[in-house]
From TrEMBL:
Organism of origin: Martelella lutilitoris
An individual GO BP term: peptide transport
Family: Belongs to the bacterial solute-binding protein 5 family.
Any Pfam family: SBP_bac_5
Signal peptide: 1-26
Upper lineage: Bacteria, Pseudomonadati, Pseudomonadota, Alphaproteobacteria, Hyphomicrobiales
Protein name: ABC transporter substrate-binding protein
Compartments, record wording: Periplasm
CDD domains per record: PBP2_NikA_DppA_OppA_like_10
Main location: periplasm
Solute-binding protein family domain mapped to chain residues: 75-419
Single Gene Ontology MF annotation: peptide transmembrane transporter activity
Keywords, alphabetical: Signal, Transport
GO cellular component labels: ATP-binding cassette (ABC) transporter complex; outer membrane-bounded periplasmic space
């Protein structure tokens, strides 16, 4: 398949078209990192939010029990100094004694236990309750700096959830005096992170200042100002005129064009999101349809030029993949069957399966229309008559729930979690409508990987599951995504392999 990119002198045109000069915040000059976000920031409490913007902000204002090394995926001490599994469902956590909240008070074991017990309290209605509630029975204070966590069952991702999902709050924060206030930290956040809130205008601007009593490594930059700028054109103009130092979720072509000017630098980093084509191998839409035949599914895999899709349509650091997970994720075994791009082989397999002239196939998609169209074109090239249904996500979800989708182009970001568990269960357990394979044995293997804390055993189980998915060609894995940033030439912004922006690690050149 041939791909074309629009040629443009966009950056030059933009520079010529800027008819105003934004306020000269001069980030490096006054040690202020000016950040632009398209999403409105309305709530500072990540215990009650989910979007990626809020994850980024929580890294600045809050601390968790553990940190996760983005390069090695190893757990590092943070608020907790260590842990000890007393048995498979009991873990003791030891805390530092020098962690300060932004109001100057010292964090205690009571604060930690309160936070976790509140999250699983049905009255909390926390966005984190679904994650923590599936494994935590209760948290118990066992000493001045120790907390015991009682688990409902064996769960290997306990430390991961502690490292990524729960922000620690002072005891009584959400229900002081018996009065429930779920918005207690929405605006006037009192966290324990490297930056404290100076001011916050919901939907407009958040001002953060370095917290001198932070227990960990102090950030290099004194102040961070986050502005909600929904219009990408406004963000561009601000960056070019010096009013913004950092942008993310930048379209590739724009990032490349603006990055070629002296006013900005384009950074392309990894993203845990992957793209894939899911096939109705289980015959949910047609019990004896073409997709129930392994050779047909293998043919579809061979027909897709995923390398060109990654290079020309996704761009940046995107790469072709052959596994039903991101290569950076724990347990994502790369030694599974691959199907190299080979249209002739694909045609042979179709003929062997009894479809020498192809067959009609309805494919659903909800995002990245050029990629969806490329998938359709590649399959048309081997004789499959594709009806591409490009719809809103809600429509796709409903049709999938009704078992009316024979194939769909999907993506999954795993919530930024570099563990195969974050993608396997939701797509291959028997209680999810995302699973079109109908393979109960596969579902049991995936579930077994979440029922042991033995990491080597988990690797073995995921290797078995991923091997089965590849051999049976239940999916056609396509590509990883790329995160594109535009930053000030003065800014040193590290790109971590898990794709999560950590602004607290930024510095000036």
């Amino acid at each position: 398949m041939t791909f074309f990119r629009k040629s443009a002198f966009f950056a030059a045109g933009l520079m010529a078209s800027i008819a105003f000069t934004a306020p000269a915040f001069a980030g490096k000059a006054d040690d202020t990192l000016n950040v632009a976000m398209a999403e409105e920031i309305l709530n500072l409490d990540y215990n009650y939010t989910t979007k990626r913007e809020y994850i980024i902000l929580a890294q600045l204002t809050d601390s968790t029990l553990f940190d996760l090394d983005p390069a090695t995926q190893a757990f590092k001490p943070a608020v907790a100094t260590g842990y000890d599994f007393i048995d498979d469902t009991t873990v003791d956590i030891t805390l530092r004694d020098d962690v300060r909240f932004h109001d100057g008070s010292t964090l205690t074991a009571e604060d930690v236990a309160y936070t976790y017990n509140w999250i699983i309290n049905p009255e909390s209605e926390s966005n984190a309750s679904g994650t923590i509630g599936r494994w935590l029975d209760n948290a118990e204070v066992t000493g001045p700096n120790t907390v015991r966590f009682h688990l409902k069952s064996v769960y290997p991702l306990v430390l991961r959830d502690m490292a990524q999902r729960i922000m620690l709050r002072k005891a009584g924060t959400y229900d002081e005096g018996g009065v429930i206030d779920r918005d207690a930290m929405a605006s006037d956040l009192i966290g324990t992170g490297p930056y404290k809130v100076v001011s916050f205008e919901p939907g407009q601007e958040l001002v953060l200042e370095r917290f001198d009593d932070y227990f960990g490594e102090k950030p290099a930059i004194e102040k961070i100002v986050v502005r909600s700028l929904p219009d990408m054109g406004t963000q561009q103009a601000e960056l070019m005129s010096g009013g913004v130092d950092w942008m993310f979720k930048v379209p590739l072509e724009l990032a490349e064009n603006l990055g070629s000017t002296p006013m900005a630098e384009h950074l392309s980093g990894p993203d845990l999101r992957i793209g894939f084509l899911v096939l109705d191998a289980g015959g949910l839409t047609d019990p004896d349809g073409p997709l129930t035949k392994p050779k047909v599914r293998q043919a579809i895999n061979h027909a897709l030029n995923k390398s060109d899709m990654a290079k020309y349509l996704i761009g940046g650091s995107a790469e072709a993949i052959h596994t039903a997970c991101h290569p950076a994720q724990f347990g994502c075994d790369q030694n599974v069957t691959d199907y190299p791009y080979d249209p002739e082989k694909a045609k042979e397999l179709l003929a062997e399966a009894g479809y020498p002239d192809g067959f009609p196939l309805e494919i659903w998609a909800y995002r990245d229309k050029p990629a969806a169209e490329a998938i359709a074109a590649d399959l048309e090239a081997i004789g499959i008559d594709v009806d591409l249904r490009y719809v809103k996500l809600a429509s796709l979800n409903q049709a999938r729930a009704d078992q009316n989708i024979p194939a769909y182009f999907g993506t999954w970001g795993s919530g930024g979690t570099a563990d195969t568990a974050a993608i396997a269960r939701i797509h291959f357990s028997m209680d999810t409508d995302r699973n079109l394979s109908g393979d109960e044995a596969l579902a049991e293997t995936v579930l077994a990987a979440e029922q042991t804390v033995d990491q080597e055993k988990r690797k073995e189980l995921y290797s078995e599951a991923l091997g089965k998915i590849a051999d049976e060609a239940y999916w056609a894995p396509l590509f990883t995504y790329s995160a594109n940033y535009l930053v000030s030439p003065d800014l040193e912004f590290p790109l971590d392999p898990d794709g999560l922006p950590r602004l607290q690690n930024s510095s000036w050149k």
